[in-house]
Design goal:
There is one protein chain. This protein is an all-alpha fold. The chain has a domain of 77 residues. 74% of the residues lie in helices and 0% in strands. It contains 5 helices and no strands. The chain is globular. The N and C termini lie far apart (55 Å).
C-alpha cells in the first residue's frame, strides 16, 4: 500500500493521480472488488470528478457501514487510498492556482507591453 501512496505523492498533475488510481483499482481482483459496497464499486475513472464521486460514495458508506472482517478491511483500504488521492488532487489544484496567481501578478507588475 505504501508504494501506491508514494505514486500519489509524487504525481505532478491530476492526470498522474488519476492514472495511479486506475492502476491501483486494476490491481484489485474481482473478488476483492466484490467485497466493496455495490454502489461504490469503481467504474471508469476519466477525471478528478470521477474520483471525487467515488470518494464521496466510499466516505458515506464507510460512515454508515456495518461491515466487519475482510469486507471492512477492504472498505477501509480502498477509502483510505481514495482520500489520499483526493488530497493530492486538491494540493495540485491549489499549487496550480497559486502558480497562476503568481504568473498573473508578475505579468501585471511588468506594466504594459508596447507592440
Amino acid at each position: 500500500m505504501i508504494a501506491w501512496y508514494h505514486l500519489i505523492d509524487n504525481a505532478k498533475s491530476s492526470p498522474e493521480v488519476i492514472s495511479a488510481a486506475r492502476d491501483y483499482i486494476a490491481s484489485w481482483t474481482p473478488r476483492e472488488i466484490a467485497l466493496l459496497p455495490e454502489r461504490c464499486r469503481p467504474g471508469k475513472l476519466r477525471d478528478a470528478y470521477d474520483i471525487e464521486l467515488l470518494h464521496d460514495c466510499l466516505i458515506e458508506e464507510y460512515r454508515d457501514s456495518h461491515a466487519s472482517g475482510e469486507e471492512l478491511s477492504r472498505l477501509q483500504e480502498f477509502t483510505s487510498f481514495l482520500v489520499h488521492a483526493m488530497q493530492r488532487i486538491a494540493e495540485l489544484a491549489g499549487h496550480n492556482a497559486q502558480a497562476g496567481s503568481t504568473e498573473a501578478s508578475r505579468v501585471s507588475s511588468a506594466g504594459p507591453v508596447d507592440d
